[in-house]
Amino acid sequence: MNKELLNKPFQDFISENIKTNLVQLSLKKSPFKNIQNKELIQQIEGKKTAKKKLPSWYQTSQIYYPPKINLEQTSSEITAQYKATLISGNSIADITGGFGVDSYFFSKYFKEVYHFEMDENLSKIAKHNFSQLDASVNCFAGNGLEKIRNKHFDVLFVDPSRRNDLKGKVFYLKDCLPNVVEHLEYLMSKCNYLLIKSSPMLDLSIGIKELKHVFEIHVVAVENEVKELLWLLCKNRTDEIKVKTINIKKGNVEKFESVLNQYEEKYVEFPEKYLYEPNASIMKSGLFGALCNEFNLKKLSKNSHLFTSNELIDFPGRKFLLQHTVQYSKPIIKKTYRNTKANVSVRNFPESVSIIKKKWNIRDGGDKYLFFTTLQNKSKVILDCEKI
């Protein structure tokens, strides 16, 4: 950490070059004697990333940004805010502290927050930024697993690195660093509650097999893109596992929850008046039987994950008025949809969106939504819809 970069001339230069092409800037000589160009670019690149991902950091003066890889791995501000509301208590330790975004938001809810980070330079950066953000966080450089050995906390938080030196980019918990599966019983002995963040790529059933003591899973999406899976563990909880989905949108938050595998899916032979496509967090959760039960819906097919009803409902996802159900046949498509404009989606269908659009010269856009899918009776159809 080069503290000279926090001085006004350098901070002004960083702010003035937020919109500058960094490739072109990298080819130029540093305008300052004692500061390398790559150091300036790291700060500019970090501030650019923070503008959207971490607005509180972006709006605070003299924030110091780490290398790009550390910012890529950190939680966004919006997901960190959500995460901090899931648990409560007096003390929490983030044993994989990183840039410190999660620790910062934990400090708004816990009296004592401990940030442990293996990388000494990153620990210094986080400590400096906490002071700029006026956050009360205790920072320690070193291995979090070792640092907590003689302590006990209300909550432990672990966000294992998904970059394994031996296997490259990974998402199974046992392949991440630290290996929370291997150290699970030790971690549980040091806290009342353990909160683990995993890759959004991890299958829920695999995560449940890898971990013990899970009583809640949170599937967190932002603007219909799943960003995080959060696992809450407690030794003394014997509840059935509850899955909570959240899709954070501008001006709206879609929530849905259910006990895992509590309800059976229901199917219908033909689509009814309205069509529903679940948001990304529900798609990831697999709570399809619970959707059928909660909203009195039926699925078009086991693998299509599209739902239908005769009554319009307030649904956590996209809603459509079904205009026509069209059999998928060459003469019908050629006559009806060739050389038209439409928004094309596929669900459980042998051809991809790009192939369909190219094959029938369908251009993107317009008010028409076409779902190419397979019904429960195996027939392939096009659902011609209008978005509600």
What does this entry show, briefly?
It is built from 15 helices and 18 strands.
Describe the 3D structure.
- It contains 15 helices and 18 strands.
- The protein has 388 residues and is α/β, with parallel strands linked by helices.
- The strands form 3 sheets. A 9-stranded mixed sheet has the order 3-2-1-4-7-9-8-10-11.
- Helix 1 crosses helix 3.
- The radius of gyration is 25 Å and the shape is globular.
- The relative contact order is 0.07.
Key features?
388 residues; alpha/beta; seven-stranded mixed β-sheet; 15 helices; 28% strand
The proportion of residues in beta strands is 25-35%
From the N-terminal CA to the C-terminal CA, the straight-line distance is: 52 Å
> What structural category characterises the helix and strand content?
alpha/beta
Main β sheet profile:
9 strands, mixed
Number of helices: 15
Q: Regions with pLDDT < 50 over 5+ consecutive residues?
A: none
Overall form: globular
What's the total count of β strands? 18
Radius of gyration: 25 Å
Strand order in the largest sheet: 3-2-1-4-7-9-8-10-11
Whole-number average pLDDT?
94
The level of helicity is: 25-40%
